[in-house]
Amino acid sequence: MARAAQAVGRDPDAVRLVAVTKGHPLEAIEAALEAGLTHLGENRVEELEEKVSAVGPGRATWHMIGHLQSRKAPRAVEVAHLIHSVDSLPLAEKLSRVAGERGGEMRVLAQVNTAGEEAKSGLDAGAAVDVVLRMAELPHLRVDGLMTMAPFVDDEEILSSAFRRLRETLEEVRRHDRAVGGELSMGMTNDLEIAIREGSTMVRIGTALFGERAR
Q1: Do the Cβ atoms of 200 and 186 come closer than 8 Å?
Q2: For residue 48, what are the domain limits?
Q3: What is the pTM of this model?
Q4: Confidence of residue 57 (pLDDT cuts 50, 70, 90)
Q5: Would you say 107 and 144 are in contact if contact means Cβ atoms under 8 Å apart?
C-alpha cells in the first residue's frame, strides 16, 4: 500500500486498510486488533452482529461492505459505523428513516457499478451523480463518498478504468455538493495497487491478511 501511494506522490497515511474478516474466526479478529488493524469489514449483517457482540464496544470501527437488503437496514444501522454498499435511492431513504428514528446519523458510501457488470450491485454509472446528490439531501444520512467493485480480471487497463471512473464520478458529485465526503472505497487483494494509484482512500483486504476463508 505504501509503495503504491508513494509511486504516485500520495501520502500512504491517506489510504485506510479495512481488514475483511468475513468467514474468519474470532481468533483472527483478535490477532488483527493486536496488530493495530481497527477497521474491520463484514459482508453479512448476521455475521457483523455476532462479531460486534463478541468483540465488544469501542475496540473497532465496523464496515458493512456486502450487499444490504432493505429489510435488514435497521439491523445494519445498529451495528455498522459505515455502510459501503448503498446501491439504490430507496435503500438510502430507508437508512435515513431508521437513523432518524434512532435519533442519530448513518454514515454511508454510495456503491457505483463502474464496470457495468450485470451481476454486480450498484448504481448505474451514467445516473450515479444525480442519485448520489439526491441521497446527500436526505436527513440523518451522511454520504462520505463512493464505493465500487472492479471486475475480477488481470487486465490492468480494465481495472484502472473502473477505478478512474469512480474517482471522476465523485469529483463531479463534489463539484455540485461539497457536503459529500471524499472517500473512495475501491481495491481488494488482487488490485489494491491499481486502486491506490487511481485515488482509493480505503482498500478492502481479506485474503492477503487472513488467507482463504474457513467458511
Answers
A1: yes
A2: 2-207
A3: 0.96
A4: confident
A5: yes
